[in-house]
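Case study 2.
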Amino acid sequence: MSHEHVSYLELLARGAATEAYDRPALLARASGAGPETLAGLEEARQLALRVRAELEGRRRREAELSALFATAHDLAGLRDLDAVLRAIVQRARALLGTEVSYLSLNDPEAGDTYMRVTEGSVSARFQQVRLGMGEGLGGLVAQTARPYVTEDYFGDARFQHTRTIDTAVRDEGLVAILGVPLTLGSQVIGVLFAADRRARVFEREQVALLGSFAAHAAVAIDTANLLAETRSALAELERANDIIRTHSAVIERAAEVHDRLSELVLRGGGVHDVAEAVSEVLGGTVEFTETPAGAARRADGHAVRDGDDWVAAVSAGGEHLGALVLRGRPGLDPVDLRTLERAALVTSLLLLARRSAGEAEQRVRGELLDDLLDAPDRDRRLFRERAARLRTDSDAPHVVLAARVDRAGPGEGGEPPGRESADRQRLRSAASHLAATRRGLASDRDGGAVLLLPLGPGEDAAEVARQTAAHLGGALREPVTVGASAPVRAPLDHPDQVAGAYQEARRCLDALRLLHRAGEGAAAEDLGFLGLLLADTRDIGGFVERTIGQVAAYDRRRGTDLLRTLDAYFASGMSPARTKEDLHVHVNTVAQRLERVGRLLGPDWQSPPRALEIQLALRLHALSAPPAGR
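Prediction:
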């Protein structure tokens, strides 16, 4: 990814203004970039601007939904009609970005319309104006029961201008006005306005949003009227009034919960999104836990009390997947309980969908690797097509890894069958997740897992093996031993090499276990001469170079005889006195040469394991040297 493309990502990350997206292209043009680079930057700029517009739209819709939800919440707990209407007008002004918003109500007894709530108004005349029926933009909205918008109030002849209205509008300095009706049934009871002191165009989405707020305002007014009438009714109607209000709250909350949860599922929300949404609806704190309490397991699909909390089991087909726990609401009515139970059901569906998707991808990756191992003679084009759908990096060098959980068993018999099966399943899941994140493949085989992972820049097989052992061991919290093969170049072009590489990785894994190095990762090159025997490649030159390469290089640079001295030293049973006789040099010379060898190979070069490897490397080096005279 180029530096300029990264610049666009940085602009998106910090929410930069639209003008800032021109800067990368300008800088590239100023530095003399070619037409192809500039065309690529322009394409990236257009894509970034589309992403920015999409993000802005999402943020705007989120803010709108949040404001509408907050308004519905205000209505559910309606105490003060003025406070609710004021909140509606304030939210409308903020979301539409206008300078002024206001709400007028019809007064059937007086035969006119009056201002009920204003926000952002600075004119006392405007705030106190009363209009005759049918006058001004509000009168047009009331007559037609449809929204109307004007970009220039004083230049718009669609509605009746009066001196009173025009004076009040001019005194407030308004130019662009949008009005939507407040209706109850077929009756218009008022108008909700949004206005600016400059010309502007109101978009269709903004008209619809203001209409939603108007609907909430109408419900608030209607609810307030019903409450006033109920308070003045006879005492024997009190119970009926309570039933009506309860029924209304049930419908509103049920509809709200249904809409919120449906919207979450449709936009691909997760479990924690559901918990957050229900927290807002129920006014408490809802959390998802993967370890449901015993009360939830016995609930049989119902929310149950657990101390001061409420717990709803999240389960499917008799399998307990977790639980939703509501805190901070010890007293819940039946509607709230059903809401929590419905959220638990939605959560179980989301978890099952996520599991099904993961299992499907895991199965497809495993099948492709199984075919590479068991049927390498299949059409290589089909291998590449399947790998492309999984977004694997098929052209890079890969390494085959054999992994197995290593835990001390309860005796000679090893692990119990149930525990061993669980280990394999957990290892398969962890290996599949690692393969997906590294754009590789994974499957289960021979009681463990096999992975085919690409080598990154500067990585070698031994490093990938160690990283894989650490990652899988951390995920399972058990020691996982991993053996690696030598790199396989473009395995989809050479599928016949994958099976051989797996056998090499298995031999390396077995060697690690025999060497009591459980929980480690290694390749053949890590195991010295043992690795040379295990590897299919028989990399003799690599083994010699790793073992005595520094000594040989020193001889070539300085014209010394350190290698010959080493060979004579081991041939004489590691005796400096016999070595000096074989070489016909002074014993001090032998000592000085051996000291130099120690500085090149390390202080432990005479330990039995190192000495054995060095002697083998000396023999292989001698065999690979050209005959004298050639």
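The two ends are 52 Å apart (CA to CA).
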